[in-house]
Amino acid sequence: GSEMCKETDPTIGHSNHTRERVPLLIYSPGITGKYVGERDTMADVAATVGEYFNVDSPQHGHSFLNRIFEK
């Protein structure tokens, strides 16, 4: 078997990164101080970008675009 790093999820049986928390910096002119919450998956970023560019959403993930541009 493959050797796992201690930073990976020991419950899933592979060494892909699954539990890291990474800060997400979002920039748009005129937008300041928005909190999008702790996301369940990086697929949420893909869903948000997809919604912004009006393309099909990925299979997984939920857009948080409304939290960025809420009034």
What does the model show?
The radius of gyration is 15 Å and the shape is globular. The protein is mainly α and 71 residues long. Helix content is 20%, strand content 0%. It starts with 42 loop residues before the first helix and ends with a helix. It has helices at residues 43-52, 65-68.
Topology:
Elements: H1 43-52, H2 65-68
Outline type: globular
Largest sheet: none
DSSP strand (E) fraction?
under 5%
| End-to-end Cα distance | 51 Å
Based on helices, strands and strand pairing, what is the structural class? mainly alpha
Low-confidence stretches: none
Calculate the mean pLDDT score and round it: 80
Total number of helical segments? 2
Number of strands: 0
Sketch the topology as an H/E string, one letter per element: HH
Radius of gyration: 15 Å
Q: Helix proportion of residues, in percent? A: 10-25%
